[in-house]
Amino acid sequence: DAKTTQPTSMDCAEGRAANLPCNHSTISGNEYVYWYRQIHSQGPQYIIHGLKNNETNEMASLIITEDRKSSTLILPHATLRDTAVYYCIVRVDNNDMRFGAGTRLTVKP
Amino acid sequence: DTGVSQDPRHKITKRGQNVTFRCDPISEHNRLYWYRQTLGQGPEFLTYFQNEAQLEKSRLLSDRFSAERPKGSFSTLEIQRTEQGDSAMYLCASRRTGRAGANVLTFGAGSRLTVL
Q1: What are the φ and ψ backbone dihedral angles of A64, each rounded to 5 degrees?
Q2: Does a cis peptide bond (omega within 30 degrees of 0) precede residue A21?
């Protein structure tokens, strides 16, 4: 499976867009990009996933570069409740999801 | 849909004791997963079931760890002869099989184990 690289931590001002990058330069053609987040003391929560096209749902947008070697999760209007660890995972299917250390996003008032 | 339930939420035990965690997945989900998470790390995959069949168990951390899903509904994770290094959050997740990428994991809140 392709390995992912994410920054250890990021800050974002409340109300601003949070842009969380993920590098996955060894991704193969049939691997999906998944994003989950984990708020303190809770289990991970699914956010969004995509294969080639950009995706948007009620929580976030996922922008995947044309070569698929990187992606960006966008939270359009971050709130304090978006403070969490965000995980980017690349998998063919979602058995055996392998979570790295993720990016710790802190939304500041 | 009541989500994935885990019990107990917290368990404190003494070294050498056995502990068992229970997971009740979302009812229509046929796949069930166990993960372990230590402080500051992402969840680490342990094992998973499709219905009652355990399809992957090579990642269980040692032979002290075992999991069952006898009727294809709830699952248990047992740790025998606990050690202090077993202290962690044990997470359960479930999903429904289907088109690749289409079905995502729903996690429970986890069971936190502290071994004294």
Answers
A1: -110, 130
A2: no
Distance (Å, rounded) from C-alpha A63 to C-alpha A60? 10
Q: Which of A22, A42, A57, A90 to mutate to test the interface with B (most CBs of B within 10 A)?
A: A42
Is B32 within 8 Å of A90 (Cβ atoms)? no
Size of interface A-B (CB pairs under 8 A): 60
Instruction: Quick: pLDDT tens for B72-84.
Output: 899 999 999 999 9
Q: Which residue's structure tokens are 């069930």?
A: B32
Dump pLDDT digits (tens) for B14-39: 999 999 999 999 998 999 999 999 99
What's the farthest any 2 CA atoms get from each other in chain B? 44
Which of B41, B93, B101 lies at the smallest CB-CB distance from A101? B41
Give the gap in angstroms from C-alpha A76 to the nearest C-alpha of chain B.
22
